[in-house]
Specification:
Elements lengths: L5 E7 L6 H12 L4 E7 L4 E7 L5 H10 L8 H22 L17 H5 L5
Antiparallel strand pairs: 1-3, 2-3
């Protein structure tokens, strides 16, 4: 089973530039803790990233890309994809850090009878 915290993203950029720029970009991004792999597709102007969400978030990677001098695509769909990536990652991190709770607990702390818990023999 694959690890759900390992993320793969494609980031559209305006242009990559020269071969020396590509090597500099790859080397800089590889040094980021949590980055697993990076591939620069010059033909399609896309960065393919694979990273561990437990160590780094897309938002940090995006800022690093901008600091390297690359311009991210400003097309509507690309902006939406980047925004959705940040949103879903934050939700995943919040869920990973959330305390375990019973299906029978409601937010006010009242315990309800739950057929699933009763059939599994859980103490209420």
């Amino acid at each position: 089973m694959k690890d759900p915290t390992v993320k793969k993203r494609k980031v559209a950029i305006k242009s990559v530039g020269q071969v020396s720029d590509i090597n500099r970009i790859e080397e800089s991004l590889r040094r980021i803790n949590g980055m697993i792999s990076i591939d620069v597709d010059v033909q399609k102007n896309v960065l393919r990233l694979e990273y561990d969400l437990r160590k780094i978030k897309f938002e940090v990677i995006e800022k690093s890309i901008i600091e390297l001098g690359l311009k991210l695509s400003q097309k509507f769909l690309q902006r939406c994809k980047r925004g959705m990536a940040k949103f879903t990652e934050q939700n995943e991190l919040d869920n990973l850090n959330a305390p375990m709770s019973s299906c029978c607990d409601d937010p006010k702390g009242n315990v309800r009878d739950c057929n699933i818990c009763i059939t599994q023999g859980k103490n209420l």
